[in-house]
Amino acid sequence: MPSPKKKPQSPDISAARATVEGCSGYAGFLELDEVSTTSISASITLHYHGTHRIKLLHKNLTRVRFGINPKFVDQAGWPCLSFLVDASPIFCEILDSCDAVAKKISEDHGSSSEWRHAVIRNYSYINTPTVRLHIPTIVNGDTAQYGTEIHRKDHSGNVQQYIFDKFDVTELSNLLRTRISVDAFFSLDTYDYQQSAGIHLVAKKLVIHPSQ
Length: 212
Fold this sequence. Notes:
CATH 2.40.50; 2 helices; five-stranded mixed β-barrel; disordered N terminus; mainly beta; two-stranded antiparallel sheet; 13 strands
């Protein structure tokens, strides 16, 4: 008889303070300067929705380098939504530490997939580090909606949630265009799929700043 297939395993990344409210006042999210790289650890889980996963807030300094490309779609034909943002030195340091612990425990548990680093340091002609933020698509039958809250900040500092009338990638692309600054609330989700493994930065909430 064939042996039963093992459930998929994925490293779950956590930090000592990831389950408490950070000094920033954003419940559950830590600002970058509140993270100690020595407190970052990883463990194997049998699911992909661990409650102790690191949730970070990158505030004010995240600038969109390349916006959403609607050409990429999943197996069901829905667009794979992501965009590139500039990565500050402290952002790179945290992600490199997460990469290191997650990659090691993944390999220690038998994964032979190629590890793709979260920080992109050789993208096209860009000579500064970037990272890719993912906007999940929630599909229900023939309809879809964004799995990320989108908010806009006006010049007075007021923030209001942006309401989409429909799932429209063009409309979303116009909001997240090149050189726009955003506050990004995101989680670090690991993946190991089709011989490719790494960390996805999944946006939970984006606050789009007004154009300068």
